[in-house]
Amino acid sequence: MEMLTIKRVPTVLSNYQEDAAEPRGCGRNCLGKCCLPVSKLPLYVFKSAAELPDSPSGATEKPLADFFLNSLLLGQWEDRMSKGLFRYDVTTCETKVIPGEQGFIAQLNEGRHLKKRPTEFRIDRVLQPFDPAKFNFTKVGQEEVLFRFEAGGGNKAHFFESAPVDGATSPTVVAINVSPIEYGHVLLIPRLLDCLPQRIDAESFLLAFHMAAEAGNPYFRLGYNSLGAFATINHLHFQAYYLSLPFPVEKAPTEKIPMAKGLANSGLKVSLLMNYPVRGLVYEGGNTLKDLADVVANSCICLQENNIPFNVLISDSGRRIFLFPQCYAEKQALGEVSQEILDTQVNPAVWEISGHIVLKRKKDYEEASEDYAWSLLAEVSLSEERFQEVKAYIFEAIGLVEAEVEDADVNENKRTSHQSTPVDTTHFPEGCLVQQ
Ligand SMILES: [Zn+2]
């Protein structure tokens, strides 16, 4: 239906012209204000007239999906691997499915924690201002960028092998994660030069949905970690990678929440995740990609404004979203996480919560059991009572009213107290910095 068009644009008229020009940027070919505006990176322009993607059985998205995911994203990722830009070779890491009902996936990755950039900010605040002095993506070299990713008009995608940056816009880029946890592990960095902190806004969140839709493959997922929920860089970014296994969370049963108000005619559905160690909400449907993205973005905005750390998994090409408010770092700081779990040094971010657990020690990998995975993730989850409370804040923020209320009195009280006092999940003393 929608074929991809590939356009080549003349970039330099002659080599002489390029050589004779003033040296471009700071000379490091970085992603800062010195070099990015004068760069000529490849550009993928996605179709912005976006309906929710067709089901995978309808093969109409095929040509596009093949190009975007296979030729461009994974092809360029492999090119960077061959150039030695990664800190270790993730393709040699052992992976196994842990025996059991859930099918947790374990990976042994002994290189990651040794070579990872240290976390440089407090973990008890979900929203923190961007700090140009700390590590951020403007400091990265352009060789780590696979392509720019921008919205176009209409319903056709375009690719330009080399495109000048329009001075008026801050480029959104897809770059490699130099400490990958899987094949094709990349970062989507919205409006990079705007130096946005790690904070969800509707416009950036929609970009992540578009990337999932363009990839059009259920094994290519995007994820988001807030500060306090194991984001390690306070510069707005989403992660994504390709892993051809279903995630346990994607197989878990869900229970639709009946709504009295708020979702009429939207085609949207909100469900509770059932029989899974981490309590979460599942968002599906909607008439357009934007409908779904907006309702999840507004849920995230509610959480971050209430200082509740959270993780998001964008699954099924942007058709199914999992939202997990979490409290692991808080429990860890309060000394409430069992030593056995702490000893494995796993930071339960979005991938771990989804059931893909990256282990740092061979012993833990060999001994990994469903019981271990379950008890690790159970530490991440809010308690049932707290989850209900947080769900109520979210629904109030996005204008949803549940159809059936089991205990009207309790809910009424919660709503009243929420309005009078802002929620604060943190019990750390001011200035407390927890080293991860
Ligand atoms: Zn530069």
UniProtKB/TrEMBL annotation:
Subcellular localization, as worded in the UniProt entry: Cytoplasm
Start and end residues of each GDPGP1-like N-terminal domain: 69-241
Record flagged with keyword Disulfide bond: no
Entry EC number(s): 2.7.7.78
Ribosomal protein is among the record's keywords: no
InterPro entries xrefs: GDPGP, GDPGP1_C, GDPGP1_N
Keywords from the UniProt entry: Cytoplasm, Guanine-nucleotide releasing factor, Hydrolase, Nucleotide-binding, Nucleotidyltransferase, Transferase
Enzyme class, first EC level, given as a word: transferase
Domain GDPGP1-like C-terminal intervals: 248-399
Highest taxon, organism lineage: Eukaryota
Residue span of region Disordered: 412-436
Catalytic activity: GDP-alpha-D-glucose + phosphate = alpha-D-glucose 1-phosphate + GDP + H(+)
Pfam families (UniProt xref): GDPGP1_C, GDPGP1_N
Family assignment from sequence similarity: Belongs to the GDPGP1 family.
Role noted for this protein: Specific and highly efficient GDP-D-glucose phosphorylase regulating the levels of GDP-D-glucose in cells.
Designated name of the protein: GDP-D-glucose phosphorylase 1
Organism of provenance: Phoenix dactylifera
Gene name for this UniProt entry: LOC103711043
